[in-house]
Write a structure and sequence with these properties.
By secondary structure, the protein is of the alpha+beta class. 56% of the residues lie in helices and 21% in strands. The protein contains 2 helices and 3 strands; from the N terminus they run ααβββ. It has a 3-stranded antiparallel β-sheet, with no helix packed on it. The radius of gyration is 27 Å and the shape is rod-shaped.
């Protein structure tokens, strides 16, 4: 029997929503590609007919569609990257065990689940939990 990975409910939901987003982005891309190719063909025809004002409008449309296609491509790549990295959300990055005596009581200090965002300009810092051991 193979090794089965268990993911948290939030991670499974995140992965399924990201996969749905990738498929929806692909669907949204198709009509934009068609509009871009039609508009770029129209630019050539309008310029050959000498209608520069209308050709300029079509060029603007081509640029807008091209920008939107680039944005959709970035969103799709980001979602795919998150899907690949989603399994790392359930894994701790490190575990540090420290035994410290505080006022005569032995305290077990250890980090929990990766990094926690610190204050302004401090970057990331480990999230430390303290539990008194008797």
């Amino acid at each position: 029997m193979g090794f089965l990975r268990k993911f948290s409910k939030q991670t499974r939901k995140l992965k399924s929503l990201l996969e749905l987003t990738v498929s929806r982005v692909a669907i949204a891309r198709k009509p934009r590609l068609a509009r871009k190719s039609i508009a770029s063909g129209d630019v050539c025809q309008l310029l050959s007919l000498g209608q520069t004002d209308r050709a300029l409008q079509r060029v603007e449309q081509v640029i807008k569609e091209d920008n939107m296609l680039e944005a959709l491509g970035i969103i799709e790549l980001y979602c795919k990257c998150l899907v690949k990295k989603a399994d790392q959300l359930d894994k701790p990055k490190y575990i540090i065990h420290l035994n410290v005596n505080v006022l005569g009581k032995k305290t077990n200090m250890f980090s929990v689940q990766g990094m926690q965002r610190g204050g302004k300009g401090s970057g990331c810092r480990p999230h430390i939990c303290c539990q008194a051991v008797q």
